[in-house]
Amino acid sequence: MRLRSDAICKDSMKMKFAIISDIHFGPAKFDTPETHAIASLLPEIVGKIVSQINEQDDLEFIIHLGDLVQENRNNPSREEDLRSGAQVLEILRQVKVPLYHVVGNHDRVTLEMADLIAMFGRNLFYSFESSCFTNIVLQCESPRHVNVHLVDQEMEWLSDQLSKSKKPVLVFMHQLLVEHPLEGTSCEGMPDCAYVRNKEEIRDLLESSKKVKAVFNGHMHRNLSRVENSIPYISVQAMTEVLAGGLTTAEAYAIVEIDESQLSVDVRGNDAIRYVHKW
Hints:
Layout: E1 15-20, H1 33-54, E2 62-64, H2 78-92, E3 99-101, H3 113-120, E4 126-129, E5 134-137, H4 152-164, E6 169-173, H5 191-194, H6 199-209, E7 212-217, E8 224-228, E9 231-235, E10 253-258, E11 262-268, E12 273-278
Parallel strand pairs: 1-2, 2-3, 5-6, 6-7, 7-9
Antiparallel strand pairs: 1-10, 4-5, 8-9, 10-11, 11-12
Helix pairs in contact: 1-2, 4-6
C-alpha cells in the first residue's frame, strides 16, 4: 500500500479515500439462526475489509459513516456496547491511514456522548483537513431513532466552518438530507427515522456556501445516489447488511476518487455499484 503523503494540494481537487458504514458490531439484530451466524462472523468480515482497503494505493483516509455498534435489542447494555466498540475498533485501527468516525443512531442507544468522545478520541461533530479538501463530519441527534436533527449549536458551527474553509468541502453524516423511496427499508412508513428534520435548512447552508462538492451518508443499508442543486448525495451500503437469501452479507466498502472533472464512488463487495458525477 502506497500512502498519500502530500501536505498540501498539489493537484486541484485530486483525492482518494475509503468509506465503510453501518458495521453494527455486537449481538445478532434478530433472534434467528441466520443472524446469530452472521454476528459470530463479524470480526472476520471486518478484518477482511480492512485487509482489502490496506491493499489500496494513495488513500488519504478512511471514514466510517455511523452505527459502529449494535445494541442487544432484548436487554440493551452500556457495558456490552462499550466492549463491542473496543473490539471492533481494535480491528479497524489496523488500517494504514487515518481513521475517522461518524456517530449513528445505534451508537447512542446506550452510550453517552462522553463514552463516544472517549472511544473515538475527538468531538462528535468536527472537521479535518486533507490535501485538497476540508472534510466536515456532522452528528445528528436522534432520540429513540426518530426526530433526527442538528441542534442549533451545530448549525451555527456548520455555518462558520463553511464560511472559513479555503478549500472545497466534503460532508459526512449518518442520516439523509435528501429523500429516497423507503419501501423495503427499516424506515418504511417512518420518514422521521430516515431523514434529518431540518434537512432543508442544512441544504440551504451547503448550497449557499458554493463550496460543498458532495455529501456522504450511511443509515439506509442501501446504495443510493441523488443530485440536488448540483450537489451529489451518496448513501453507501452497510458493510454487514444481510442480502437476499439470508446468509450473505454485503461486505461493502467504497473507494472514492475525486479529480478536476468528476467524483467516482466505487462500492465494492457483494452489492457492488459505481456512481460517477461529472462536475
